[in-house]
Structures are given as structure tokens and as C-alpha cells.
Amino acid sequence: MPPNILLITADDMGGDTPGCFGGPAGVTPTLDRLASEGMTFGRAHVAVAVCQPSRSAIMTGRWPHRNGAQGFEPIADGVPVLTEVLREAGYFCGILGKVDHLQPVERFGWDFTRGMRELGMGRSPAAYGEASAAFVAEAAEQGRPWFLMANAHDPHRPYSGSQAEQERFPAEARATYPAPSRVFGPEDDVGVPGFLPDLPAVRQEYREYLSSSRRCDDVVAAVLGAVDATDTLVVFLSDNGIAVPFAKANCYLQSSRTPLIVRWPGVTRPGTGEDTAFVSALDLFPTFCAAAEVPVPSGVDGQSLLPLLRGEPQDGRDAVHTVFHETAAKGRFEMRCRQDARFGYIWNAWSDGVREYRAENMLGLTWPAMVEAGGDRVGFYLHRAPEELYDLRADPHSLANLAADPAYGEDLAAARRELLAWLDATGDPLLGTYRAFLAES
After folding, report:
1. pTM score, two decimals?
2. How far does CA 172 lie from the centroid of its chain?
């Protein structure tokens, strides 16, 4: 009998937030334990670093420009979704939270759903645990294997304990979920991510974010406690990076890197890590098909992770591509990125020296603090440059753009060739635009 499949997602959790990925101590004890029981992927990336398009890509295994959901719109008719494939194989399918972030909802044919408000605004570990137990019991009654997508709404804004939380959620809504099992305060010297300036307001918001990340970990604990681990393939990841400047809704390393953990009894070895191969969230679709022993539909862009999960080498894992199309507010900022072990290359098709970037990652405390402090990073973030090139070995936080440095001319040319080939191979609608850009450069 094929395994049960549990897919747990975090909302806006950075790839280096869990302790098992180098994050601050004490934030994610459950995820750290899950990692010790399974396998971590140090070079895992989502396809697009914003919520709904990222989730649509996961559930179709296709690039946004090939599944129709480049922004916050429905997946195109005729594109198979994961639950359709699994249901044909007899799976009982359920979803907890973020139900409306997979459109059209009816295409997924969920047998079991619990929305945000039924889950304490997507922040109640007890509600997630109870719903997971109910789902598993219902699947058992029907004698069917199951697929459950459990989507925590943490650490998405508003962050725990923030002024924004008080303003956005009325008192009756806040009463439906608890505080995190650990709250990070001024006494916790956790610093800030290296791509952000170390300012008092940034530190405050990062601590609030970590508190919300801890509550996400509490949700994971509740969900895991409700399922039988012996015959369950468990996958955890985030849909994109932290909702702050230079992360979510961009194409930087910290935008798309996701804390991917896989525990598959009998397949993965406990406490192992794959830190060399680049993998994409698109790869989950064919991996789940392999687990369910069903054919992968034609047109899927990802490739199964099964060889890596077994500890075997796999070709084609020396780089990863990511894209960005549209913000939640429908702002169109086309970006394409290629990352390998040395360089990160970004083409900003929107950058013309005049237009200003605007996105939801500029809400909260961090961006206003950056603006008040001033500096070149503020102006650069608003306008960018048509091309960005970063030596990720020397500059993992993408602070020094080398695209105009003659010393890196050959590296820039190589990155351009690789991106052009990828745009061509995937039928990217901006292929002609990029060719014209290169011809003029």
C-alpha cells in the first residue's frame, strides 16, 4: 500500500530560520527534531517567492508561466493538479488553512477542509491537531491512503505581539489562538539576518517574526502528533522567504530558499542532509507521484527527488532557476534568476531607472526604519538595476552587485547564456524581451 502523505507548509518563513538550517537557537524545536529523523535540503528553493503562485507551482509541478497562475489568479484549465492525480489513485485528500490560496478551489476536490477562521486565524496549534486527527480518522473509516496539506498561517504578518496584530485582528479573533510557546523579547540577542541593516526597529520586528515562527513550530508539533509516523511521508517547507525587503516577492537567495525537510520511513536515513544538489519545490509533485505509484502527468517541470532521498546521485542538480511576476497588490515586476554554487544572477525586466518597486514586504517596521536611516540600499531597492550578479560564496547576503564589474565579465556572460537557454527551454513569455535586452547590452 502506498504511504500516507503529509505536506506541511509555513507562510513566509525564511530558509535559514529553523535551527536545523542555521537559525537562532530555540525557535523551531519540532522542526529540528523532524530534521534529525529525516533529511534536510540546504539548497532547496521555491519556484516563485510569493504565496499563491508558489503554492500553485507546488501543486502543479509547473512554472507559473506554464500553469497559468503567475500571480493571484486560478490555475489554467487543463493543467493537472496534485489532488486530481492522487484521488485517481484512491487517496483521501484534505487541506488545513490557506484554502483560498489554491484556485479554483473546486478543481482540487478536497474531501476535507478547514479554513483559517476554523483554525484560530490559522494560528491555533490545538485546532490544527484536532482537525488533523479528525481527518486521519475519516480516512481510516474509508480504508483509504491519505494526502493532507496542512498550511500554517504563521509566521505571516501580523507578527505575534506586534502593534499590527492589535490593529488588524479584533479582540475576538485574537482570543481564538494562543501566544507562541516561546516569545522572543529584547533580552534575546538574536541579531538580524545579514541582508538587513542592524537597526533597533529591525531587531524588534525580527524578534516578533521569530515568535510567530515558534508558533508555526507549535502547529507542526500538533499536526505531527495526530498522525502515525510509521507509514507517512512527511514533507515540510515554506512558500517563500521572510516578508521584509530583499526577501519575499523578489529573486534573491533569501527570497526563494526554503527549509525543506523530508522524512520517509524506509527511504530517508535519519539525520542526513543534502547540501550540494539544487532542488526546486516543483520537484515535490513528481516525488509524490512516485510515492503513490502513479504516472507523472505530461508537462510537469519538476523531477522526482527519490534518488536523492535514497542517498543516490542525480544529474541536473547544479543550479536552480526562480521567477517573479506579480505582487499581491497586482504590481507587475518581472524578474528571472539563476543560482548555482558560486553565483546568483538576476534579470530585472522592469527596472528602467524610473519605476519604483512596491510590495507587501515593505509593510511593518523594517522598511520605514531603513528609509529613516538612509543609505544606498534604499535607493537600490526601489529602482534596482537591469542585471544583478552576486558572488554567493563571498557575499551570501547579496550586498555587492558585480554585474558592472569588468573583472566578472566572463561570469556575467556565462550566467546570461544559461538564463537564455532556460527561458527558451521553458517557453518563457519574456524570451524575446531578454534577447532584445542582450542585443542592446
Report:
1. 0.98
2. 30
pLDDT at 54 over 90: yes
Q: Model confidence at 312, in pLDDT bands (50, 70, 90)?
A: very high
Buried b (16+ CB within 10 A) or exposed e, 266-299: ebbeeeeebeebbbbbbbbbbbbbbbbebebbee
CA distances from 228 to 5, 137, 146, 163, 320 (A): 11, 11, 12, 39, 34
Band (1; pLDDT cuts 50, 70, 90): confident
Cα atoms in the 13 Å half-sphere on the side-chain side of 30 = 18
Measured from the Cβ of residue 191, the count of other Cβ atoms closer than 10 Å reads 13
**What's the CA gap between 197 and 216, in Å, rounded?**
25
What is the chain's Cα-based Rg?
Answer: 21
Pick the closest to residue 311 from 339, 273, 368 (CA basis).
273
Alpha-carbon span 196 to 189, nearest angstrom: 16
Measured CA to CA, the distance from residue 129 to residue 177 in angstroms comes to 13
Q: Which residues contact 409 (CB under 8 A, 6 or more apart)?
A: none
Cα dihedral 375, 379, 382, 385, rounded to 10, equals -120
HSE at residue 339, side-chain half, CA atoms within 13 A, is: 28
pLDDT tens string 352-395: 999 999 999 999 999 999 999 999 999 999 999 999 999 999 99
What are the tens digits of pLDDT across the range 180-215?
999 999 999 999 999 999 999 999 999 999 999 999
Confidence grade of residue 131 (pLDDT, cut at 50, 70, 90) = very high
Does 229 score more than 90 pLDDT? no
Interaxial angle between packed helices 376-383 and 366-373, expressed in degrees from 0 to 180 and rounded to the nearest 10: 120
Distance CA 301, CA 128 (A): 32
Domains and CATH numbers, the chain: 4-307 (3.40.720.10), 320-440 (3.30.1120.10)
Residue 201 exposed, middle or buried by CB count within 10 Å (0-12, 13-18, 19+): middle
Q: Enter the DSSP assignment of 51.
A: H
Q: Which is nearest to 306 in space by CA: 322, 293, 319? A: 293
CA distance 432 to 414: 19
Nearest to 3 by CA among 233, 296, 295: 233
Answer positive or negative: Cα dihedral of 389, 395, 401, 403. negative
